[in-house]
Amino acid sequence: MDLKGRRFALLGLQGSGKTVNAKWILRHYPRHLVYDPLKEYVGFNRYLPTYREYSLEAIAEINAAIQRFIFEKEGKLDLFVIDEANRYCPTRRPLPETIGQINDFNRHMNLGFGVIARRPVQLHTDLIELAHDLFIYRLKGKNDIAYLNELSDGLGEAVLSLQPYHFVHVNELRDFEICAPVVTV
């Protein structure tokens, strides 16, 4: 799947397979950058933020990093991913300015843009509902399941029934299919 010019989200509980999938995706785009607050992407092109929880300083830092590495060097990256995106783009808060710009204009920049979060209900809805692709791993929370069922009829139940490391791929039409675990070499 070519993710350049597309938006995507990886969602699921800790240990469900999100990071394995994210690393698999990143390996296919040598010109990538991952915003890595938990220091999980050793060996990848990454930015290690100083601030890891939502605060004025964290928003200023992510805006400055995106301005420097994405907008000032437009065309230099093929993929930008924010891990633990709910820390910077929580529900009921405005999107940081630069993230809103990427979410609106990544197609014109031919930039793949991905976010990773554990729970969809903790992530800003624009990042989920405007995503071209969703990769959803095991979730159990009743609010998460209800939200997914609102996105696509039966999606929440499909996620609840997932075997370990399997995921549901949801396309931009909100059709979905259950997929086998990502295999890395």
How would you characterize this protein structure?
- There is one protein chain.
- The model has no long low-confidence stretch (mean pLDDT 95).
- The chain is globular.
- Helices cover 32% and strands 18% of the residues.
- It has a single domain, classed as P-loop containing nucleotide triphosphate hydrolases (Rossmann fold).
- It contains six helices and eight strands.
Order of helices and strands: EHEEHEHEHEHHEE
End-to-end distance: 18 Å
Structural class: alpha/beta
Number of strands: 8
- Rough shape? globular
Outline the biggest β-sheet. Answer: 8 strands, mixed
CATH class label = Alpha Beta
- Give the mean pLDDT: 95
The CATH architecture classification is: 3-Layer(aba) Sandwich
Provide the domain count.
1
- Largest beta sheet: what is the strand line-up? 3-2-4-5-1-6-7-8
Keywords:
single chain, 185 residues, Rossmann fold, eight-stranded mixed β-sheet, 8 strands
Q: How do the strands and helices of this protein lay out in sequence?
A:
Elements lengths: L6 E5 L6 H10 L4 E4 L10 E2 L8 H16 L7 E4 L14 H13 L2 E6 L7 H5 L3 E4 L5 H10 L3 H6 L6 E4 L5 E4 L6
Parallel strand pairs: 1-5, 1-6, 2-3, 2-4, 4-5
Antiparallel strand pairs: 6-7, 7-8
